[in-house]
């Protein structure tokens, strides 16, 4: 397709030819452009599962890491790249919760645009209190971070570190953690990837009454059409036929 647009710019008479036009239309029929997801999964399934991982003192460091990572992904609707760039030396405690300004360059970074701020909010339910999870996670990983420093390695200032080595993790690891939690929660990970947390969270927010401005701020979008085209999806629910056939 890139070559086609290049031809249009340099040889407009060629791409406007009837044969070329018919060829491109046939390509579209053979392999039409479709969105990655037609529907999305229900966030409640994952939240119910994460609620069962409580109290936190009974969890292994791996479980606590996965839970904290997923809660941040769902409540912030951020990409794995953004979550991976959260730093413990740049967090700020506020009345809303714990805030992590991201000064690193992200996919949505623009000149003179304000840095993205990831909020880990307070929540009345202690099993889903993101602020408490984050602060407890930082306290629990302090020993691992000190161990890395004693080994003569750079201080791991990233929020999320390996629960084995204590070293900072990559974006792919964040995505893998999210996908693992989804799988444990009963989500079909053969279809949904870790990135689908953005789709699921903002779709639920819209159905719970979030206005377009709130959704755009949540997803870090500058254009509402981005959400409408790529992220606004129906949540998977029992088919009407199943409701009719049921008791």
TrEMBL record:
<dbReference type="GO" id="GO:0006310">
    <property type="term" value="P:DNA recombination"/>
</dbReference>
<dbReference type="InterPro" id="IPR002104">
    <property type="entry name" value="Integrase_catalytic"/>
</dbReference>
<protein>
    <recommendedName>
        <fullName>Tyr recombinase domain-containing protein</fullName>
    </recommendedName>
</protein>
<dbReference type="Pfam" id="PF00589">
    <property type="entry name" value="Phage_integrase"/>
</dbReference>
<feature type="domain" description="Tyr recombinase">
    <location>
        <begin position="64"/>
        <end position="231"/>
    </location>
</feature>
<dbReference type="GO" id="GO:0015074">
    <property type="term" value="P:DNA integration"/>
</dbReference>
<dbReference type="InterPro" id="IPR013762">
    <property type="entry name" value="Integrase-like_cat_sf"/>
</dbReference>
<dbReference type="GO" id="GO:0003677">
    <property type="term" value="F:DNA binding"/>
</dbReference>
<keyword id="KW-0233">DNA recombination</keyword>
<dbReference type="InterPro" id="IPR011010">
    <property type="entry name" value="DNA_brk_join_enz"/>
</dbReference>
